[in-house]
């Protein structure tokens, strides 16, 4: 009998974390590494947020809090949803967790039974299928390729729904593609969901504020208010305010679901860090200048990376609507060989050979459920990105 749980057979380690760790190890060995694998803003947390955290420590806010968040933060989240999304929640319909990942996981753990299905568009964030599996559910993946702008269609969604479907997960703008559902695209999907009242919607809005050009962010319950009583609207401060390490995510949803998620959290981590909660309160209620400034920087970096990659032989890189990722196709490189004779058989081998030859760390597309692609996070300096793109261009040009 194995000492380890059979649950581990249903999940795999995060490939994005694995690539980041490998890049870190190679850098520690003295290699010249440019790591573009981690989805993390490279800016400092804004000063007023850091100062609020220090003030919280000095004020003695260092003890346990309510399991799913302090009252002022919950009210600030209600105000944020009303102000920015037109969604009216009460504090009892709000939960605060240790990052958006915990919020999503709590919801799945609180609702899934064996055999329940969760529809997940691909490319997907690497954790969605594994969290569903951990909770005892069955991931149902819908592929949305480059030709569809990495967006699923209403017909695909309708065809995937069965009597066992419990959730559909929508992530806009998306990790890993940066693709977003505008109001027309979202309306087409919500129309389908209105016809299937047993299906709940999990909307991962973590990249809400990182949108470019004239793209306008919308969330499902905003587009179709009649879905609000079966929608969990998830967000957080990690990406918008460069607070990844602070670990604060939140969500609004029906009170019964929020209560059930609180029960799960009470027996796992209990409350999120008290200091981080006060920092998040300052983020949501304080000056918002940082968002505008960081958005401009990310759009500039996006344009640099998209332009550079589209000059690489065999790479096709669409222009994303948001987030800080690109998800180019390498269909034109499959079957080629490096100068050392190594074959580019798939996107995994592409990523490993690229790292070995140039020191540029990216994440292979199979990790996100759609090949042959790779993901670059352009949350890095302009100089690093320009250097990385040049290295990738040289690598592609060397393939025969």
Automatic annotation (TrEMBL):
Cofactor: pyridoxal 5'-phosphate
Residues in coiled coil: none
Keyword tags: Aminotransferase, Pyridoxal phosphate, Transferase
InterPro entries: Aminotransferase_I/II_large (IPR004839), AspAT/PAT-like (IPR050596), NHTrfase_class1_PyrdxlP-BS (IPR004838), PyrdxlP-dep_Trfase (IPR015424), PyrdxlP-dep_Trfase_major (IPR015421), PyrdxlP-dep_Trfase_small (IPR015422)
Enzyme Commission code(s) on record: 2.6.1.-
SUPFAM superfamilies (alphabetical): PLP-dependent transferases
A molecular function (GO) term: pyridoxal phosphate binding
Catalytic activity: L-aspartate + 2-oxoglutarate = oxaloacetate + L-glutamate
Residue span(s) of domain Aminotransferase class I/classII large: 32-392
Superkingdom, natural source: Bacteria
An individual GO BP term: amino acid metabolic process
Enzyme's top EC category: transferase
Subunit structure comment from the entry: Homodimer.
Family that this chain belongs to: Belongs to the class-I pyridoxal-phosphate-dependent aminotransferase family.
Protein's name according to its UniProt entry: Aminotransferase
Organism: Paracoccus contaminans
Lineage of source species: Bacteria, Pseudomonadati, Pseudomonadota, Alphaproteobacteria, Rhodobacterales
